[in-house]
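Supplementary notes for students who missed Thursday's class. We covered one full example, reproduced here. Read the sequence, then the structure, then the short commentary at the end.
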Amino acid sequence: MDRELEEQYVDEKKSEENKMGVMPVKKLIISMSLPMMISMLVQALYNIVDSVFVSRISEDALTAVTLAFPMQMLMFSVASGTAVGINALLSRSLGEKNFEKADEAANTGILLEIISFFVFVIVGLTAVKPFICSQTANATIQEYGTTYTTICCCASLGVFMQMTFERLLQSTGRTFHSMISQITGAVINMILDPILIFGLAGFPRLGIAGAAVATVIGQVTASCLGIFMNIKFNKDINLSLKKILKPKSEVVKAIYAVGVPSILMISIGSIMTYSMNKILGKFSDTATAVFGSYYKLQSFFFMPVFGINNGLIPVLAYNLGAARKDRIDEALKFALKLAVCIMAVGTIVFEIVPGTLLKIFDASDNMLGIGIPALRIIAIHFPIAACCIVLGSEFQAFSKSIYSLIVSLCRQLLVLVPVAWLLSLTGNVNNVWWCFIVAESVSITITVISFKRVNKNLPI
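Structure (token representation):
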């Protein structure tokens, strides 16, 4: 009887053509990307609001959150990279009408994310304090940073589950439901931030610990909503506890074939931010705070472009499986134009009102003196970065993430950090920011070369 039901389930899915294979491409990109762009914008707004509240504690607290960021990025890299592997395998399997393999990708991916969570619990209990102390000698910043990072690591299950279930929705074209999940988590986080940080509405004043607790609660809420929406609305996959607990080795390998390069690629960003914190810390803690503020502000423009990237990946993967190169080309061209326009706006804003942006974080005169030229210099590379992000989405969608890894490695580790260090030897912190322009110039060159190679060898 179970076999008959399973066959009926597969037949029903075969009879439904996924919209990624039939909807007009421009409309498809908008329908796939817009919900994620909106949710990413909300996430970017949360990033800014979160830091605004933390900055009201003190500049030391803002610096502490900046020092915690590399560890948070490392955690995100594992969650996101694994989810990218799940996404690519699942979308490609759906394009090939291999629904059993799609189910295996989803269920096995959930188990891999849970295992990753337990790894970071161990990290949170053993490695956080030396990690924070290696970046600053300021005792207050050390205390703030250790408290914040430990909570985020030890209660990180929400990060891994949120990322997984949102990507399952995205990979099957249900980006609206993914948007609802992400926005809900971010909004709850923003609401709880002032309540828990400053002890409003009868709650105890938790200070920087309150910011971490608010973050965790938002992530858990989003993950619970993501689980519900997958069970209720995602008919392209069949989640099963039995399949979760019985992973197939070939599925694990297929997920990590794409996932590991993606994990390493994002992890490189963690190493980069850690290295930049140390380089800038030699000038002052304020320079480090400026770097952290920049990262929060730039997310308001980068996040929507990553939303386009996330919406584009399943479209490309599906149409590769369906052997529709015409749709792949059209999708890439449209997404590229959209991303460049967004980033061009970002450059203009950073050039015109950098001081206004920094005052959002209650910036001191010293912070403004360092931050205004920093924002103006760094923003020059935004449109170039948009091209790299969109073209790089093809590497992830086509299981060629090794190219994304190479680009990211050259941009953030082999070029940006050494150039930043060399420029820091001039003794002028304003010179350090030019490392972003140099690194992005190298990045676009390698991206274009790799993009041409991948397209030349497509099996369609």
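Commentary. The chain has one domain: 24-455. Residues 24-455 form one domain. If anything here is unclear, bring it to office hours.
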